Amino acid sequence: MTHHADHPDDTDRGADPALHARPGTRAVWAGEHGGFMDRATQVPMVGSVAFGYDDLDTWYEVATGAREGHIYGRNTNPTVAVFEEKLRILEGAEDATSASTGMGAISAVLWALLRPGDRVVSVKDTYGGTSKLFTEFLPDYRIEVELVDTTDHDAIEREVARGCDLLYLETPTNPTLKLLDLERLSAAGHAAGAVVVVDNTFATPINQQPLALGADLVVHSATKYLGGHADALGGVVAGRTELIERIYHYREINGATLHPEAAYLLLRGLKTLHLRVERQQHNAQGVAEYLEAHEGVTVVNYPGLASHPQHELATLQMRGFGGMLSFGLEGGLDALARFFPRLRFAHAAANLGAVETIVAPPATSSHVECSPAERAALGIPEGLLRYSAGIEDLEDLLADLDQAFAAR
Ligand SMILES: *Cc1c(COP(=O)(O)O)cnc(C)c1O
Question: Roughly what angle, to the nearest 10 degrees, separates helices 78-90 and 260-270?
Fold first, then answer.
């Protein structure tokens, strides 16, 4: 978004040659035909908080949205605007806006669009922070939230048909890699008059395009795959202009603004998004197949395995199966505590989507706030390890797992 309600019109936007290019070309070029300061080929990091005007009329026009430009960094910033434009084009959206974190973006969507008396339908397996908004915060504002079994599409449709103002979906899910059928559920949401929101963090726009499948809004934790280097927090929302304007307006007042330095790092990361995702899912497939054949493993969750209960949906809905998987270790939490510190080419950390492989037990990361019984109900055994495949050489990752198993 540029300042206030006024954006370049569609003819201007159509001028970006990346608009009709393939995903890799979009990742590199989208939003980068701007003619930057001093003919810089790279998007400059503009740290300035304010933008000055000596002419009162121009200042007034920019401040009231009649003319394009920037006023104050909490509202808009040139570096941040390029990040938003790149994501707008990558997601095939009419408009996009950003936030300081993924949770900042998700909160802005919910607080901008929901009012007391509204009803949200979502699933039990959403990201931990999102789930906290649903169970801890929204009910205080008299917003009803119904969280349905993620594996039961009929039940989701039934709840939506009972009345739904906002249908919130996430696929594949964290950490058990369950899938939601976006085309089917978007249609159900629209039949009930709901706004359909999809968290596309795990799939990335390279593998999945929720808006093309019928969703109204797509959200990301840019902290993960979009940035890809685990050195910048960020969030983004893309979709129809009418919705994005309301979300931007809430966020500019709420103040959870994306920092220009983070936008700069995210833009640098985005240029290799397609290369990273291709390599990460190549590695994830190899690791998943290796683990599935290992006698020390109880279960492997990866949509690219023929044994995944929704492998066919994954093939239809996604271009690739992504870099995330999870697996259960024979021997539960004790075996897990001994196993993961032995991995030499994996950070043990509460993060994902980076160039390095990262492992995390849900019991200490994504689902730390759940009791063991609540985790069990979500199909998360205590011995489960989430595995975010990096871009290393697959042979080394497999050898690393081998030595960690051998030392058990
Ligand atoms: C990390 C994550 C979020 C939250 O993003 P932050 O940038 O940490 O605020 C939301 N959804 C998913 C699927 C995530 O993995």
Answer: 40
CATH architecture of 17-270: 3-Layer(aba) Sandwich (3.40)
Whole-angstrom distance, CA of residue 223 vs CA of residue 89 = 19
Q: Are 143 and 119 in contact (CB under 8 A)?
A: yes
Ligand 1, atom 1: closest residue by C-alpha = 221
Which class does domain 273-407 fall in?
alpha beta
Residue 167 contacts residue 121 (beta carbons within 8 Å): yes
Rounded to whole angstroms, the Cα distance separating 273 from 275 reads 6
Question: What does the pLDDT look like over 349-403, one tens digit per residue?
Answer: 999 999 999 999 988 887 887 788 888 888 888 899 999 999 999 999 999 999 9
Q: Which of 101, 178, 224 to mutate to test the pocket of ligand 1 (most atoms within 8 A of CB)?
A: 224
* Residue 235 Cβ < 6 Å to ligand 1: yes
Q: Tell me how far apart the alpha carbons of residues 17 and 317 are, in angstroms, rounded to a whole number.
A: 26
**β-bridge pairing 217-221 and 195-199:** parallel
208 DSSP assignment? -
Q: What's the pTM?
A: 0.95
Amino acid at 265: L
CB contact at 8 A, 346 and 357:
yes
Sequential DSSP letters for 343-368: -SS-EESS--SSSS-EEE-TTTTTTT
Return the amino acid letter for 337.
A
Residue range 106-143, pLDDT digits in tens: 999 999 999 999 999 999 999 999 999 999 999 999 99
| 17-270 and 273-407 agree in CATH topology | no
Instruction: State the catalytic residues.
Output: 74, 127, 199, 224
Rounded Cα distance, 179 and 62, in Å: 44
Nearest-angstrom CA–CA distance, 138 and 145: 8
Output the DSSP codes for 132-175. Answer: HIIIIIGGGGT-EEEEE-TT-HHHHHHHHHT--SEEEEESS-TT
**Domain boundary assignment for the chain:** 17-270, 273-407
316 Cα to the center of ligand 1, angstroms: 25
| Cα-to-chain-centroid distance, residue 34 | 26
Residues constituting the chain = 408
